[in-house]
Fold this protein.
Amino acid sequence: MRDLLSIKNLNTDEIYNLLNLALNIKKNPEDYSSKLRRKIIGLLFQKTSTRTRISFQSGIYQLGGTSLYLDWTTTNLHLGALPDEIKCISFYVDLIVARVYEHKILEVMRKAANIPVINGLSDKYHPCQILSDLMTIREIFGTFDGVSLSYVGDGNNICNSLILGCMKVELPICVATPSGYEPHKDVLNWVKKNNKEHLLTLKNDPKEVVKEADIVYTDTFVSMGQENETKKRLKVFKPYQINNKLLSYAKKMPYIMHCLPAHRGIEITDQVLDSERSIVFQQAENRLHLQKALLINLLK
């Protein structure tokens, strides 16, 4: 593994190695406190961020490294030719984490850089989030065998990466989206090409997908860059809110996952997000540990 733009870049063994390392880092953080000594990580962000930025910056510091946070608009990234800027940045840092609007920007960066590039979020994928979510699931259940995961909401970057992550570890996933808001066709084609269709179920009715779920996962209905669609999306997605009424169709009370930030009262209610079955903040904490594992792996 040289870069991480999508979970498609990882094989199953690499994912398990990352999860094992992340769990060990979480238990024994001091054992890794000098792993990034003298390493400098560039954080190039077009989009705002809480968890991705802070977990990476804190993790780099705790591993003995240094980070440079570069807001896209305060550099010449938006003025010069992107490949030229990335080639120059590659002379100054050891690894780039980039959070961008369009995934194709990451592809340009990867070609121009002679150092590893990590996708900190794009419109198509969010691999760091989903790897830490897989860590959380494994931490709770001890295995992926026999676990049933359902995703309810928009077929967005989270949904795309969640599907890919589940396929890689043989974790069945059932996805409910409104018609016209399904996961990206590239992801569905990848599932078909790799003979993983038996692990993925696509439906439109959220009541059907929660029935057998051990975990119900959701995300915002309006992602960054889709603000002009807000009114339409809130109307279309209203039946997909994770609330006690929807969860009453589940045969057992599932765990609740959300990548945050949550829009309380829109895609999820306070009662569900703050319930005993919510593992949302365990997910958030595990961003730190998984990203440490990823950095160590890419810079070893």
